Amino acid sequence: MVALYVLLFGQICVASCVLPIGSQPEQVHLSYPGVKGSMVITWTTLNATESIVEYGLWGGKLFTQSARGNCTTFVDGGSEKRKIYIHRVTLSELIPGFTYVYHCGSEAGWSDVLYFTALIESTSFSPKFALFGDMGNENPQSLARLQKETQVGMYDVILHIGDFAYDMHEDEGRIGDEFMKQIESIAAYVPYMTCPGNHEWAYNFSHYRSRFNMPGQTEGLWYSWNIGSAHIISFSTEVYFYLEYGLDLLFRQYEWLKGDLEEANKPENRAARPWIITMAHRPMYCSNNDHDDCTKFESYVRLGRNDTDPPAPGLEDLFYRQGVDLEFWAHEHTYERLWPVYNYKVFNGSTEEPYMNPRAPVHIITGSAGCREKHDGFIPKPREWSAFRSTDYGYTRMHLINSTHIYLEQVSDDQSGKVIDSLLLIKDVHGPEAWL
């Protein structure tokens, strides 16, 4: 009789307690919209539902506030024309530096209880970042270490410098879903700021443009935002390579970059945010042996293209003229730190202190987080502008200390989290005059 009761009870529970799977939120991630006291929460469901975030201050009563947003239908470009529903809710009037507990979803299903800390808006804020590119959902070597370090509060922001999932469009978009689930354990706790890479090419970068929510009105292809003493610019190197999606994108981005840099260099703006930092996928320089754009003197990203009508301008001269301090790249599945360089020439601050008041931008390539394509190799003899390089899986940490000091270090996941490289970039003068 007892066994029968248990069986009957189990049958009743199966019939009445199964969660509405298609309505359950998944792939939760945060982004900073560039607006004071705000945070955007994005997630996915497999069915259309309402878009609600319930939240409250850490230590207080749960979910005392709520905000509603919108849901858009994303249709994958594959043969199934598979649909997912992407939800976006913006939280506003957050108290800078305070931690909030939240969950997202609707009365049809809620996410786990999660938390984040609202970014501090002050120019004296000293944020810490993890940054990397080229992380897939197969062989994501650095992911576990990043998960733990993020959840114990080591980072304020994550920068993912292109190439996600390998590839988000595969298996009718299901690989993208799995990858976004994997990074939820990072991206649901701190803003996850992105730029597109070549592996996002499918269907005119539609998965990237739809899944992430970055500042501005360009679907995350290029944008800028401020944090602490830095103005950070994210842009697409892919406009130089996928001309079938429109040559106009290349010129629109260039004009936007020029205008954004001119605005950032206005005396009052450069005084408040003296550091200008860029992030984009394909480097201008590298010493790898795979015949990518950065291995060629006539790099499209660096010098532009002469085979277009009109010729397309490159970016090295623009960034140099506008006094860009630090440039982050990925694409090569390695780590490489360069000496301060412009036009293939090294401009160290001095022999003893190369990164103290350097007279050219500093480039860092950090594309070794881990993916199914494994490592890239290097040419045997490094170029004269190459200061340090490693094929270890890993990622980069950055501490934006203040208006004159930035600390960077490279973590090797192959060596159990050992710091294998570091530098302290010191600049008493910012802007084009720093090169004189």
Task: Please provide a written account of the structure.
The chain has 436 residues and is an alpha+beta fold. The chain is built from eight helices and 28 strands. It has a seven-stranded mixed sheet with strand order 15-16-17-20-24-21-25, covered by helices on one side. A hairpin with a 7-residue loop joins β1 (26-31) and β2. α2 (143-151) packs parallel to α3 (174-187). The longest helix has 18 residues, at 247-264. It is globular.
Radius of gyration computed on alpha carbons: 23 Å
Give the DSSP E fraction (strand runs of 2 or more residues): 25-35%
Q: Can you give the helix content as a percent range?
A: 10-25%
What kind of sheet is the major sheet? Answer: 7 strands, mixed
Helical stretch tally = 8
**Shape label:** globular
Biggest sheet strand order reads 15-16-17-20-24-21-25
- The residue-averaged pLDDT reads 95
Distance between the termini: 90 Å
Query: Are there runs of 5+ residues with pLDDT below 50, and where?
Result: 1-16
Give the strand tally.
28
Look at the helices and sheets and give the structural class.
Answer: alpha+beta
Please sum up the structure shown:
This protein has 436 residues and is of the alpha+beta class.
Topology of helices and strands:
Blueprint: H1 2-17, E1 26-31, E2 39-45, E3 52-57, E4 65-68, E5 70-75, E6 83-91, E7 99-106, E8 109-110, E9 114-117, E10 128-132, E11 135-136, H2 143-151, E12 157-161, E13 164-165, H3 174-187, E14 192-195, H4 202-211, E15 223-227, E16 230-234, H5 247-264, H6 267-272, E17 275-279, H7 300-303, E18 304-305, E19 312-313, H8 316-321, E20 326-329, E21 335-338, E22 341-342, E23 345-346, E24 362-366, E25 386-390, E26 394-400, E27 405-412, E28 418-426
Parallel strand pairs: 10-12, 11-13, 12-14, 16-17, 17-20, 20-24
Antiparallel strand pairs: 1-2, 2-6, 3-4, 3-7, 5-6, 7-8, 7-9, 10-26, 15-16, 18-19, 21-24, 21-25, 22-23, 26-27, 27-28
Helix pairs in contact: 2-3
